[in-house]
Amino acid sequence: MRKIRVLIADDEVLIRRMISEVLEEEGLQVAGIAANSSLALAKIPQVNPDLILLDLEFDGLTGLQTLIDIRKTYPVLPVIMLGSMKEKTVNLAMEALALGAHDYVTLPSSASGNTAKNSLRQNLIPKVKTFCKYGNLDEAPAASIKKNRSNAFSTSISTPVRAKPPKIKTTKPQRIDILAIGVSTGGPNALAQLLPELPKDFPVPIVIVQHMPPYFTTLLAKRLDEKSAIGVREAATGDILKPGQALLAPGDFHMVVKRNGGQAYIQTNQAPPENSCRPAVDVLFRSVVEVYGANTLAVILTGMGQDGLRGCEMVYDANGQILVQDEKSSVVWGMPGFVSKAGLADRVLPLNQIGIEITKKAREGRTEFVSA
User: Fold this and answer.
1) Which architecture, in CATH terms, is 178-363?
2) What is the pTM of this model?
3) Catalytic residues
4) Is 179 within 8 Å of 358 (Cβ atoms)?
5) 5-135 and 178-363: same fold?
6) CB-side exposure of 5: number of CA atoms within 13 Å?
7) What are the sequence ranges of the domains in the chain?
8) What is the b/e burial string over 220-236, where b = at least 16 CB atoms within 10 angstroms of the residue's CB?
């Protein structure tokens, strides 16, 4: 099997050197290095890379224009953006994802030392291998990258489990009283398509875990709120769950649902990560099942890893309902693939049909529901 070929487009010498060392230590090939945007664009046809690592603040400007120029000629070539966690850079990263970047990786604050290299190795290498489809195919059931779709930030890389034989439900589904969504790689664009399809008077509350670090989730919630008829905002401890409102777990915090009397509300915490994630889908789904039981509708969208599998097992055992995104419409069919292969999903649907199915299930048992 040939090595993955990576083009590094960054104007800082120390950053290029660190990335090159990490790639080569992991058995990947540095196909080329570019210190400015013109050189980067010229080198693509010369070195034929499998993936480009592109600095967000490339060549003294922003990497966005370089990304736009790349996409004009190479619409499906994987591009991972590199940058810091500064507010300005995070805003640029969100724009890059909307413009077709496959993902965003935060660079270490220092470009030297084993700590910096280990951080880069942990955050970057799994994504490079996944997007180039040269990773171990046994790590996820039918895991795939659909090159005709844009991607988004992900932190979920997990140890795989053996798929279980399909289960058979025997009890009639209950009325839905909450919608819980788990999503990772490709999530911002998937949510931007799904949530605007839900009507303003959607009759149940919505809770979402998207694998993202702090501030990314704040910005994502604002963008989704602007696009959607329902309300969308980043969650905080004490928030009351209300129909037609979506609460997004804040970066670096688990989000759980609690009940006090007849009122359900949110708690956030910084308990240890699960599935290498905080927030984690499994943590949210467990709490939702404890409060809502069979009245839960769980949805697993595109993402790497297996976060959400254990939570969906609990939803299934409680006789809740589960929808998963299909392989063809997913950026990465890891999270939804695990749930599907375990036989837990009520339906496996393309992204453009999930909103319709969610609304249909929300209507069932509610004569007062009127579509907006």
Assistant:
1) 3-Layer(aba) Sandwich (3.40)
2) 0.86
3) 184, 211, 307
4) yes
5) yes
6) 13
7) 5-135, 178-363
8) bbebbbeebebbbebbe
Q: What is 5-135's CATH number?
A: 3.40.50.2300
| Residue in the block written with tokens 């759980």 | 256
| Residue of 317, 318, 313, 315 whose CA lies nearest to 341 | 313
The C-alpha torsion from 310 through 184 and 26 to 160, rounded to 10°, is 20
Tokens 């839960």 — which residue?
Answer: 296
Measured CA to CA, the distance from residue 135 to residue 126 in angstroms comes to: 8
The rounded distance, in Å, linking the Cα atoms of 350 and 372 is 23
Name the residue with tokens 């990314």.
216
Per-residue pLDDT of the chain (372 residues; tens, 9 = 90+): 789 999 999 999 999 999 999 999 999 999 999 999 999 999 999 999 999 999 998 877 678 999 999 999 999 899 999 988 777 788 889 999 989 898 999 888 776 678 889 989 999 999 999 888 733 333 333 333 333 333 334 444 344 444 455 566 667 788 999 999 999 998 999 999 999 999 999 999 999 999 999 999 999 999 999 999 999 999 999 999 999 999 999 999 999 999 998 899 999 999 999 999 999 999 999 999 999 999 999 999 999 899 999 999 999 999 999 999 999 999 889 999 999 999 999 999 999 999 999 999 999 988 655 444
Torsion-angle region of residue 336: left (phi > 0), alpha (psi -120 to 50) or beta? alpha
